[in-house]
Amino acid sequence: MKMKRERGKVSALGKGNRCKKESIFNGTRHTAGKSWIKTNGQMESKQQEKEFIDKKTGKDSANPPEAKKKRVSFADDLEKMKVFDRRMKLAVTPSTASPGRSIIMKKEGGMREICNEVIKKSEFMQETSMNSVRKLAVPNSEEEETKKSRKRQLQKISCGKIRPTNERRKLQVTRKIKQKLLNMPKKERKVYIRELRRKHKPHFDLVLQCKHLWEKLRCGKTSETERKKLVIDIYGIVKGKVKELIFAHDACRIVECMVKNGGSDVRNALFEELVSEIISMTKSKYARFFIIKMLKHGSVVQRQIIFDAFRGHCVSLLRMSSSAQVLESAYNDYANAQQRYSIIIEFYGVDFSYFKAADNRVRTLKEIIMDFPSRKSSVVKYLENILIDIVDKPQIKLSLTHRLLSDFFEFAGNKQLEEMIDSLKLYIPQIVHTNDGVRIAMKCLWNSSARTRKVMLKNFKGLVMKTCLEEFAHRFLIAVFDTVDDTVLIDRYLLKELLDNIDEIIKSNYGVKIMHHLIHPRDPRFCSASQIAVYKAGDENPYSKKDSKLRYAELFSYIQKPFCSYFATNMDVLLFESHASLLILDLLEAPTDLDVFDRKVSLEDRAACYDAIALICSREFIPCDREQLHPVEHPQAHFVISKLLKSDSKFDIRLGDFIVERCRDQLSSWLACNKGCFILLHILENASQQTQKLLRSALSLAVVGKYHTKGATALKQKLK
């Protein structure tokens, strides 16, 4: 046992510096020599040690064999080795040191702790694997950094440095009190622990009393009058102590509930008591929610006081993720134009936050630079320093950040833009959900090399459908189709996911615009003039080399067959929907002057779609059917069929031929409907000669003459 202790002492010395190691080792050797003193004779020299070894081996001391020695250290050069024998009596002195603080803590290593650690690790690995699916493949240096950060987090979990969020904070006590608690019954122990907590928290009883009333207050069954009474009762308890309670996680929720359910008198009293702590509350993890509640439920005067308190602190508030949420809510949801201007102006320079203009009017950064041209470089540099700090933080999602980025991109130099784009390339999906954000994303795309564009597109893996369905984000995908030359890359990361979710996308007002853009790029029938002007701004970027006609044709070749296959399979549903029916017409209609490229649908795919339409038309015609109108009578389906019949003469495969072949027995019943007569008229005008003969044989002039609608009259003239 002594030998093991000696080995542990000496081996631990290898971790220190050399000089220290030698001095400590000599001291250790000296103390070990003292323990060699025996009662029946003392061995004080090296010779005595040698004789003892000779006696043990039983051989002559004149020619002693080399004894097998055990090393008690892993050091390279040892001055002395000692050999210990079981027969030697060693004096062992027990340690008299008092136990450390850790002895009263809970022991680790139990089965439950091991299971919890395994569960934490598995959950963490699942979360990281899900995030890795959505994130792009970063360069090697960035991959190493992410691996190191994951390893650090796993080490923290295994060492117990990361506490579960729902775990209650442990109460640290001395060993004596812990032993006393272990000997107590469960009920007495609970009471005793509560008393200990009461000593640690000065307002423990007060908060406990408020919690009982708060449970009644937030109950859904409590009436409005009773809630008002409970709020007054709680305020009577906390009056004068709100400053001390607002920063606690439990007491803060009680105060928030009072703001929500109380009257204006209670709100005013609470606000007056806390008005001096607005900035510290905004930066607090829990108290910041009181500021949000006051912005929502407070008066106009109280909101103005909050905005005045923010003055001079907006930059520091945006740098913190928790306080940035409060600033974003104030800026985006509750501020008027003047209040927004007072927030934005602080990010242009320190002096702007303290010295207002004489006229106090709202001005843009462009107007400020026109008035002070010499300030342009300093303002842009100040903006850059702020944005670089928050670009990789959760604040990048905020609309306030997007506004600042928009100002920066408008006036920054080429080198500054390159650095900012390089910082933003990994976070493009997080900024495209606002109007300013998507414009910044498009500018990043237009001013990026092919390699950087590839990184941006990889980031959208798994997010394509969500991007298509958003009001502003879908514009970025349209800009990608207009700009990126590598269509194979677009197909791999965007189009395949888009086609897998086509059923959801075509039902969206914004998703269907992307579909139309792939078929008819920048079609003014589906895209406003202002949006077309925005997309045209990226046409002259220096990094897109491929001809736009060739790029659009390649993209169309990827989606043409999947589109036709999907339409033919689901025609009985899509033909009656507003968005999907127009998409069918857009794909199958004849070439127009609006076409940007030579759009060709294969004969096989066109025939499959035409046959699906004819099959739907072959169902029995019931005028004004309540369950579902016949496609001839349905407004959306009738519009699509009429347009396609009018363009029949420009194709070898014609829709009229399929309809007459499938619906020969039902054609005469369509005469009862004005829209049905026009369908028959379009077939007569554009179908093949053989189909026209079949139609004339199926419709007698006498039968058509019985109807007096506009369609029947025109059809009668055509049959003559």
Automatic annotation (TrEMBL):
Keyword Membrane (UniProt): no
GO MF, one annotated term: mRNA binding
SMART domains for this protein: Pumilio
Compositionally biased intervals (Basic and acidic residues): 46-59
Record-level GO cellular component terms: nucleolus
A Pfam match: CPL
Keywords of the record: Repeat, RNA-binding
This protein's record includes keyword Repeat: yes
Chain positions of Pumilio repeats: 273-308
Positions of the UniProt region annotated as Disordered: 1-69
Gene Ontology biological process: regulation of translation
InterPro entries in UniProt: ARM-like, ARM-type_fold, CPL_dom, PUM-HD, PUM3, Pumilio_RNA-bd_rpt
Protein name in the entry: BMA-PUF-12, isoform c
Lineage: Eukaryota, Metazoa, Ecdysozoa, Nematoda, Chromadorea
